[in-house]
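Limitations
The structure tokens in this dataset are predictions for the assembled complex, not deposited experimental models. Users should treat interface geometry with appropriate caution, especially where small molecules or nucleic acid strands are included. An illustrative entry is reproduced here so readers can see what is and is not provided.
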Amino acid sequence: MKINSINDSKNGADKMFPENKISIDEIQSGIEKALKLSEKLGAAEAEIVFSIGESTSIQFKKDIIETAKQSTSAGYGVRAAVNGAVGFAGTNLMSDLENTVRTAVASAKVMEADPFFRSFPEKSAGYKEVGGLFDDKIVEMSLEECIECATDMISGVKSIKNMIPTSGGFSRSVSYFMIMNTNGLSAQRKGTAVSGFADVTTESGEVSTAYDYDVSRKKDVDFTGVGRNAADLAKKSLKGITCGAEKMPVIFHPFSFADILENTLAPSVDADNIQKERSGLVGRLGDEIANSELSIIDDGTLAGGISSGAFDDEGTPTQRTSVIENGVLKSYLYDSYTAGKDGVRSTGNGYRYSYSSVPSVDFSNFIIKFPQSDVIAETKKGIYINTVIGAHTANEISGDFSVEGRNAFLIENGEISKPIKSVMISGNIFEMLKKIDGAGKDVRSVGGIITPSIRISEMSVIGE
Amino acid sequence: MDQIQYYDANQIEGRSMTIVLDNGKLETISKNSSKGAGIRALCRGSWGYTSIDGETDLKVGIGNASELAASMNRSTPKEKVILGAVPKRKVGSMPKIKINPNDINIEDKVELLREIEKYAKAEGIKSTRVSYSEAVLTTRFMNSEGDEREYNTVRSGFAISAVAADGSNYQAGRESRFNISGYEIFEKEDPYELAKQAAETAKSLLAAKTPKGGALPVILDPELAGVFTHEAVGHASEADLVLQNDSVLLGKLGKQIASPQITVIDDPTLHEYGYYPFDAEGVPSEKTILIKDGILNSYMHSRETAGAFEGVSGNSRAQSYAMPVVRMSNTYIDKGDAAFEEMLEDIKDGIYLIGSRGGQVNTGEGVFQFNAKKGYMIKNGEITDLVRDVSLSGQTLDILNQIKMVGKDLKLHAGHCGKAGQTVPVTDGAPHISISKATVGGA
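Predicted assembly:
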């Protein structure tokens, strides 16, 4: 293991990545120099991010641990603005920052003036601390401990008879992010995460598959449970029946509900899509678009949240934004550019895939709230869908989708009864939001979407 | 020290650029340069892998990967991995690049995109987006067996999308072309025509109906049939998935798994988007016949899976310097002899599905789901009403056996394939094919 224990010093990163001989002071002064250069080259404003991440992952195939991976990723991303036009350049060569600045400025000069560009974020008065994002225990994990987490998942799977993993793995990551711009903004943050994923199948006889995963900023994941849950679900899905084509209540497990939401509602509240009129929610602020008991909050300040941080990838402080409140559409999500264009404040939703990509609007932690109850017990007849495949093929503008429900079950007289082999569900997210009429007590965090199981009063279901 | 029986390294150096024009506004010019290495070491049955961004000291990298492999072997010892031998092959011809994208200045590229966008901005079109990307890569391979190789590639491509709206009804049309090509991609393809097509599709879909779902006779166009080939057949033929019990094609080698008219090929030597001269294990590329006349002929292999199956390697690929995995290249159903008109007549009543908005497959159970861009109802052997939001789903083996006719109009389409968190350029393709019965989803 390359990462040794750290004492949380001022910035931390020096000691987080000792092998890379990273000196934060040196990087900071390099960035300061490069920002000055950008102004000399004719940029009105510039912004430079530096990020470094180190991860260890252990992968298994079947019940055999096969590979240990250790990856380091580090680089710079530069944005330069000339007359409101913003050029971008990225590099992972530490010695190449000044050239990268030249490239970004040159690109900006090619672009036409953009009157809607206001500025990169101003220096913040101070960021509110968000707790639970960094766990020393994750930094300190030895290779043996990482392997143990993977082994735990495998034994979890094998604790259920006739079940075996197909593939899966454990991963731990430590990351550090720094942003500075010519408006005097300068901020750093760091984070940790562990995750486990298990894909399982039957060892012999009828094939039945399922998966489960979990991710946390703290070292508190029950890896045995991840394996066991996946295996248990695959086992319960054996001997599936077929169902006909009909309309009936559907309850979505947090996995399937989050998958559909991410591909339909999330892009619809992105201010960039609104401004480009590529959203079914253009001009709908203040309208009742969902059941009056439904509220959705985007919360970048959530303690321990997968997508939480004191500031977004542009340096804007994160916040709690009420997107839907009691069924009424309250706000879109903004980064600094789209906010400037609408004359509002950024909601702190400017995110990047990595240092080498331009920021764009994305949700942080999407929290779904609806009065919770024993929703299955209250359902006489319906279908319970654990996961779906094909959600990313949804029409994100109209909100129409057609997906294949996996590990689906019939609900009869308030109980999960027989598994259903295969079922297609089609619908429209905006109609669905109005038809939400129940939520379970089983809140889960699924890739930044935090939701219970959700019941829709009626949907089109087609069996095979 | 436990013995390291093998190590290899892929060093990649590259430069890429993306230009995005959105509703007439030049939204993004993004340039990236990167360098790095991915290094693997094998100690009995354990792989250690390390990847480093930026300048790399290979010696240190090999040392780190070896240490990972050795300590893995100590804590979880397992059976020794036998790597398949490197087949004795020559590296085939390299694609010729006519116009280096570097030689075209950025203003000209932007100007061309503006021209293209004009054709997409037809009457009734609410918004448009045109993007262009280019990537120049140098790949250097070396391993502990003394093999050393290097090659350069240039890839470029463009995508056009148009959105039409009528009240709350929004429909999109999208066309894209990518290739192992320089700036001459704009000569090989007709971007203006494609822009017009994208606009046309978006507009026509506004008035299209959603069909009633159910089991129907179906004709797939080459693009959708290609996606089926790649997703449902191709992935299930990747030997790593077969080995981990995650493929419906496990134990099916030499068996009739499809209609005898079906031959499926993966060919990385083709000068198409999925091209490579040698794979991420330094193995010169070669065509693999996956299904021959309906009989499963071969899986696709890395050296490790080739060793396990007595197969032939050459399909190990990686995104940049990530850990190599078994991947497809250019994968297609070979052409048959049916004319499209014959298929229509033969089918009589059913649905004609066109293009793909993507899909997903469960290779283990052999279940898939794809969404078509659009479709037409077929009545009495004739194409009638346009339909939208149609999807196709079913069991891979069922569909392969239900294929009735295979057309003679083979076409390849470039795209990007994701597996194990890595994205690599591929093409997939097929002629028109007809299927006697498949589940079509609608409203």
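Some entries come with short summary sentences. For this one: Chain B has nine helices and 23 strands.
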